Amino acid sequence: MKFKIQQKGDAEPWYFEVGDQVLSRGLTPGQSFIARKLDNQLACLGELEVRLHPDGRSIAVGDVIVPFSGSSQVIKGTDVRMKMGAPAIFRRIAIEQVKPIAPAKTTANLGGGEQKSPLTGKVLSVLVTEGQKVREGDVIMTIEAMKMENRILADCNGLIQNIRIALGANVSVGDPLCFLKPEEEENGK
Amino acid sequence: MSQQEKVFKELVFRPFSKVLIANRGEIAVRVIRACRDLGFSPIAVYSEADRDSRHVSMADQAICIGPAPSSESYLQIRNILVAAKKSGAEAIHPGFGFLSENADFANAVLEAGLVWIGPSPQAIHAMGDKTFAKRAVTAAGVPCSPGKNEPLKDVEDLKKVINDIGYPVILKAAAGGGGRGMRVIRKSEEIQESFAACQREALSYFGNSDVFCERFIERPRHVEIQILADSKGNTLHLFERDCTIQRRNQKLIEEAPSSFISDRTRAEMGRVAVKAAQSVGYVNAGTCEFILESPEKFYFMEMNTRIQVEHPVTEAITGVDLVQWQLRIASGEEINFKQDDIQIRGWAMEARINAEDPFNGFRPSAGEVHQLEFPTGPGVRVDSHLYRGYKVPTHYDSMVAKVIVQGQNRKDAMAKLYRALGEMVIDGLDTTIPYHQALLKSNAFQSGEYTTRFVEENETLLKEFESHQRPLTQEEALAAAIHAKNPSSHPTASGHIHLNEKSIGESAAQSGKAPSQWAVAHRMDATRR
Q1: What is the value of pTM for the model shown?
Q2: pLDDT of B165-181, one tens digit each?
Q3: Hey, is the C-beta of A30 within 8 angstroms of any chain B C-beta?
Q4: Does B459 touch chain A (CB under 8 A)?
Q5: Which of A4, B228, B471, B525 is most buried, by the most CB atoms less than 10 A from its CB?
Q6: E strands of B65-209, at which residues?
Q7: Hey, which residues 372-391 in chain B have their CB within 8 Å of chain A?
């Protein structure tokens, strides 16, 4: 498996290759293996010895220790956030397997579509009506959870359709709230 | 004086051994620990949503007091008293929040023949009515922000006050607290609407539409004084806590001492806070909150008649166990040290860790704790009710832990807090840890030059912190890819998020379990924006 790794904001990415068998089944704590450093044409620049520390909190690359505090979290697409370093801070890093398949343009990456509740709570206000045009970032509704008011924002410019909840309703994570028809789609793409 | 004089029971002080804690979560755990330290038997109460909570498992007895909504459980005076009777509790500690500042609850506890671990219902009532409190402390010589210390009769009344003190002014609910139902008025066009809105909110939040008005201080510091008073007439202060760093009136980081005030102001504020407490015959632990316009100019805001979230920073710098003393004072003990015995040692800071996602507007994040590791080492304390496998319920406050550090000075305390937050692992929930880390590295926080508006005026704090990180080294880049891609770096295979949608599906299929709600929420999150 070849990877392109780039921290958000960094000028240049890094490229590495790790044997498929190494990651497919999961590393045993204490296990060592060799990874290859690549250039941006994916040619090999050299080898590095890697060892996963049995406490699950760090990885040694040669004699350099890279600590981790917790698991990585997917943010969006190939971007993950992980807490690493000493003292560990959160870094946002895009980790891409090289040989990418071009993603099809869908409602999902255009924004819009079915607007689902990101949290469990009670609908405090519904600020739009069906057929209303909204702009990206407009507040569609507010949901109260854990004593706090949370604003649900429009993903993109578009048209509000099919409002599925009413004022005061209790919603759970993932419950559909309304449909947001993206503007581009509306204009016939 | 208030419209109808209520007749409240007087406090009773007598030894006890069984203590019911009418609270949940972190503070219930804290009080249980104080009970254990003193050899008392702690009794927990819990709602149906809290059956699996840590405070339940740490107690000697645990009694269910109703369904998940706090209005049907933790706020049900009757249910709590029934639990007390059933369990044979002799005293009740209210913690903070819920019924802790409810004079009727304190009174009911006393009427049931139990010891109330807190100030008298009369003192709670007096301090709970903000206009009454301001009148009482003003009479005792405590400085208050200019305004009218009585409920406003109508809009005309409000206009008259504004004429006297000038814009901007702030309208507050007389029965309020916690920053809810407050409105700032900057020009005459806003008067009518703000007055009506504030009355409405006061009624819906606090069941009393009385509002009052005082001068609004634009960019204040928030500094409070800890009070401890016993039944023998000793009233002491334990110096200040600086709680200026707040978001929507909720404190984020508290520290003691305050870097803002001089020793002279410190002594003056302490003296004034003792007077304020004495003016209502205060007994037990309490806190006088002040706002500061400048390092010398402070105004009394309110008195919190309970233990506070941030009490550990005071415990750290003074060495006084405040919750133990709450219990000891209630049992009739006399405070065995004098004002002059209390000295500030070093510098303490507390970061409140909330289950909220600071990268997404502090959206609450309920879910299951998959991995948990608390920081330790010199000067570090963690108060929390979390355990591995615990599912954080959505019904209550989002605070899940407090990290308290003590250093030799402010710089050392900041370094220790930063280190501790780096070591802390709470997997499965989004937490405010990254926000605290960014805050600790900001110039304004480090230099001590900030006001209560800091968080709202620095919305991009976290983004800036991320963008100022040094580039990844080759070792970090490689390790990051392996960490993210390696299933065994994620000890909880079931439902944990992996690098891409495909591997999520795979891991869920491998473990034969559906992904957790939390993972689903995050995946949705990932596709939202």
Answers
A1: 0.81
A2: 999 999 998 887 666 77
A3: no
A4: no
A5: B228
A6: 91-93, 115-116, 147-148, 169-173, 183-185
A7: 373
